[in-house]
Design goal:
- The chain is built from eight helices and three strands.
- By secondary structure, it is mainly α.
- Helix 5 packs across helix 6.
- The protein starts with a helix and ends in a 33-residue tail after the last helix.
Length: 206
Amino acid sequence: MSGYRSIEGTEQAVRARLGDLPVRHERMAAVAQLYRAAVAVRQHFENSVLRAAELTWTAFVVLWVVWIRGETETRKVAEEAGISKGTLTGVARTLQGRGLMERNGHPADGRLALLSLTPEGERLMARTFPQFNAEEAFVTDALSDDEALTLADLLRSVVAQVETHGAARRLELLDGEAPRPRRSGRRPKGVPEAGREAVPAHSPQP
């Protein structure tokens, strides 16, 4: 029950901080719990069934996409896995090194590459997915089958909203400008934070 207490405490702190600001609390609560659930579920899987298979969440998703679809272009795998092509390159290289995945050139277009599972990759997924599904049942055990299907439909609606209208909304928020490149949040070396002196590189960090 500690999770329930921490959620309630967080919600009380949010209400105290926001006060009378015109905030749509119901929508905020929905997104906050969506994020919280996603983090909790991912951590559970990575610390249980995926740990035993020596896979990260992202590696498993990449294996899953190729296992279900068969040999697939890298760009389509990245899109379906929800990761960048650069991230896919690193993950695929690791899986190749473990003998779980193969990368081959496209027979009709030399600019494209195809990913497929090796026999060992096929065996790993055949062993791992039933265990993965058992944990899917575990994390949703508090729901009835009908509630689980309703939850899936509701989350599908959220995804559809973002995929259908997200691009236009982002353009609106950015006044029609293209998004700037993402930044890591780190400042360039030698540039102090506003209002503070730069910390010498050799100084111990707190």
